[in-house]
Design brief:
single chain; 180 residues; mainly beta; Lipocalin; 2 helices
Length: 180
Amino acid sequence: MKTKLSSIALLCAVATTAFSQGLAAPGPEHKLLAGLAGTWAAETKIWHQPGQPPMVLKGTMKNELILGGRFLRSHAKAGPVERLVIHGYDRRHKRYTTTGFDSGGTYSISTTGTYDAAKKTLTMRGKDEAPGGMTRVYEFVTRFIDKDRYVTEFYVSNKEGTKRFKMAESTAVRKRAKTE
């Protein structure tokens, strides 16, 4: 019980500090995430092995801002694959964050990264232990073509970075509301 109370007190202290430093409210970096809100048509190419033709899936992605604009929830479905991703920007550490789940496993992938405004590119990296104990490094590179189109490439490599493989590429185009 004492440990629980200490944990709650620590959590309250961290939240109070973040609030008093103005870090609790969305910042200018959250505008990038807000621009992704809406419904998107997506085409995803997945390569299972280098040099092989990709499997192509078409589907829909619905993105919405949550928790007062602090995070973007993305729910996508393409063929048999369903995905839920939470995107954010951590003002304390000055990094974009992503945690994703999909129907291909019972685990999540978390990444952090930065946005290069000159290149209109968001690069996110993370690592995880794959089955068999091998460490895999993940990299998601999102290029913003315009306000209604972006492309995300997904790379995986070994921890040394010597074996890099493009596993997927997804092109998203904003769906427009039909007018009568």
